[in-house]
Specification:
This protein is α+β, with helices and mostly antiparallel strands. It is 31% helix and 19% strand. The protein contains ten helices and 14 strands. It has helices spanning 26-29, 41-44, 48-51, 69-82, 105-111, 114-124, 185-193, 264-289, 296-306, 308-319; strands spanning 38-40, 58-61, 64-65, 87-89, 93-97, 128-130, 139-142, 150-155, 161-166, 178-181, 203-204, 213-217, 224-228, 236-244. The mean pLDDT is 96.
């Protein structure tokens, strides 16, 4: 366990801390329990050669407890205070919150907690850190304004690893179940191209025992959604992002999707730091491991690979807005 990019000491313009928050206390606010089941990427149909390039072979866990009763109460109160900052995410999500860790110190400390990170490390089986882009920490989805709309359409995430936590009590919500597809994102894309969504017979809707329970997710590889409500109830979930500390693995991020949803004052700086961190790690490996060789093209290829994340970030920033991908309903 370590740090990818330290959480900024300063807030982006336009962000202010909530007043009168409690201090985050792991002994009081956490109640960490292990999941009973782990699903692997191979179980979803991914081939070994594709899995080998990803952060972890783990796909998803069964629900496990993260927060105590008091921690769940505090998180719900903070989510309700932050509701005034919700915005849409293109046509995919009607009401979502980004940048909450720049507004709530309690939420920031939960999302960067060493205890929680270590717990997720044990589930993923790799060294991880809270996501290098704080906009991916403490993301929240709120119920839509109409029950005709899904809370979040079928998609795979714009980041590699995360957990999905229930903030409101699922027992108090009519519908709005979290679901994931027992298949690959390539299959989901084929279904979408044919005007279809993942069939019910190949989806899983985990049973969350209460608020403060979460599942670990390989978000970039597992197609999932928050389904439609059956009645218009308060329904809030939270997603917290992580990165593998091994920068040799695929980036597994679609940061260009964020141009249409995130505040640019925060996004571009975070994105640049993320790309620089990954290139720094790859350049350090090149310094340590590059053998002597007269093969100029091989050396150039190593250098290009080391800085590929930075080069892609530059190109995508220059290109500007892109669509936020999803697979429908």
């Amino acid at each position: 366990m370590g740090t990818a990019v330290p959480f900024p000491q300063m807030q982006p313009p336009g962000y202010e801390w909530l007043d009168d928050e409690p201090s985050f206390d792991p002994a009081l606010h956490l109640h960490l329990e292990a999941p009973s089941e782990i699903i692997m990427l191979a179980d979803l149909g991914y081939p070994d050669d594709e899995i080998a390039t990803k952060a972890t072979p783990v796909a998803a866990s069964s629900p496990f407890r993260v927060l105590s009763d008091e921690g769940s109460r505090v998180l719900l109160d903070i989510a309700r205070q932050l509701r005034r900052y919700v915005r849409p995410a293109g046509e995919r999500i009607e009401n979502m919150l980004r940048g909450g860790c720049y507004r709530s110190r309690w939420l920031r400390d939960l999302c960067t907690s060493e205890d929680v990170t270590a717990h997720l490390e044990a589930i993923y089986g790799i060294a991880i850190a809270p996501h290098a882009m704080p906009l991916h920490l403490g993301h929240m989805n709120f119920e839509p304004n109409s029950i005709d709309n899904a809370i979040d359409k079928w998609h795979h995430d714009t980041l590699p690893l995360d957990f999905v936590m229930m903030v409101t009590d699922p027992a108090d919500v009519d519908g709005g179940r979290f679901e994931y597809f027992l298949g690959t994102k390539h299959e989901a894309a084929e279904l979408s191209a044919a005007g279809q969504t993942p069939p019910a017979a190949r989806t899983v809707a985990p049973d969350f025992p209460g608020p403060g329970y979460a599942i670990a997710l390989h978000g970039d590889m597992v197609v999932h959604r928050a389904g439609p409500l059956l009645s218009l109830d308060e329904r809030i979930s939270m997603v917290n992002g992580y990165v593998a500390l091994d920068t040799a693995t695929d980036d597994q991020s679609r940061s260009s999707d964020l141009i249409v949803i995130d505040d640019h004052e925060a996004l571009y700086t975070e994105w640049a730091k993320m790309a620089a961190w990954r290139s720094q790690g790859r350049l350090a490996s090149l310094i340590e491991e590059l053998p002597f060789t007269a093969d100029k093209d091989a050396v150039i290829a190593e250098l290009e690979s080391a800085i590929a994340d930075t080069q892609r970030a530059i190109e995508e920033m220059r290109a500007g807005k892109s669509n936020m991908d999803h697979y429908g309903g």
